[in-house]
Amino acid sequence: MYNAKAVTIGIIIFVILFTSPFWASLLGKSYKETGISLPKNEKECVETTDFMRNKHMQLLNEWRDEALRNENRVYVASNGKKWAISLQNTCLKCHTDYKEFCDKCHVANSVDPYCWTCHLIPQGSTK
Amino acid sequence: MNKSRRSFLKVAGISAFALSSGVAAMQTLSATAEAKVAPGTYEKGAKALHAKRWAMVIDTRRFLSANDYKPLIQACHKAHNVPDIPDNQNIKWFWLDTFDHAFPDEMNEFLDNRRKLASYPLLCNHCTNPPCVRVCPTQATYKMEDGIVAMDYHRCIGCRFCMAGCPYGARSFNFKDPRKFLPDPVPNPAFPTRMIGVVEKCTFCAERLAVGQMPACVEASGGKILFGDLADPNSTVRKALAENYSIRRKPSLGTQPGVYYLI
Ligand code: SF4
Ligand code: SF4
Ligand code: SF4
Fold it and tell me: Which of A69, A70, A79, A120 would you mutate first to test chain B, the one with the most B CBs within 10 A?
């Protein structure tokens, strides 16, 4: 290979630079929990914690369409429990602390949902 | 390369087919993925009121002055956190107007004063053929199976086509943030507000029907407004229409309003 040494060094430098985000993240800060405070009086959400954590936004979208378009305003959870479909009157009845619950994760993940331009944040939440 | 025209077309045809079937497969995939995320199921509330075609009959003969409608307007606007904005950008779900404005088709110049000079209560007519639904580009406005013309404010982009389409002026645009004109806390903390840039209107109280309550204005009217199933010949509304002379707003347009006036 013509100029093999320089080319090899070049390739190595390129690979290191290209993968640098991975190295940086390995060396860098460790995984940090958001430290959300869960509702005090309730142990059980509509569905499992995992499902709610991963899919609450899709579930809320589905709730919205079912309630507003098909007038199905009751959700029968997989454990058979029935819930009135309402962000404001069902979810926020337990999740009363907007700052310490919703906001903690949303801010950490840089998402800015605009639910609250219409839906009311519970009284007493600091916002 | 020396490819014949025939072999070129063959390859081109096969690639086009492969590409399009790939796209179709992806579409069906994403459609099934979109179908449902919830592990549970959906149903209507046990107490929900049902109808094939909700309709309203307003007995204007029993309202003696514009003041008699005030409690109804208040009940509606309170129940739905409708702000009162003191200029021409106000929001109205339930409002009053003169006979000439409400019923421009009735061109009887010599109508008696009782009917001619009265105020008439106006709201969305929940038309059978709603032009607002036809013009809405986002399906933010739609007709439900029980005849209610509803809105999904999440989808509304504020284009105001529906306001141009509605021949009754039943829709209002939020030029300003409505929360600035509502007390804090809002009159009904169980109901959302709207945001700047969306259109809103009367919902026929779909959220109240879903839990077994009559619309707020009907409840506040003390029996002067009837609400029921137009498809059921034994319903209170059908009986009232069978026994009294009734008119609707601008019937010649063919929208088939669901709000009837006994005058
Ligand atoms: S009155 Fe206007 S807003 Fe209501 S359904 Fe008819 S066209 Fe639509
Ligand atoms: S303003 Fe909203 S509801 Fe009206 S036509 Fe546009 S998107 Fe539809
Ligand atoms: S039916 Fe409900 S939303 Fe419509 S005017 Fe009456 S109270 Fe208001």
Answer: A120
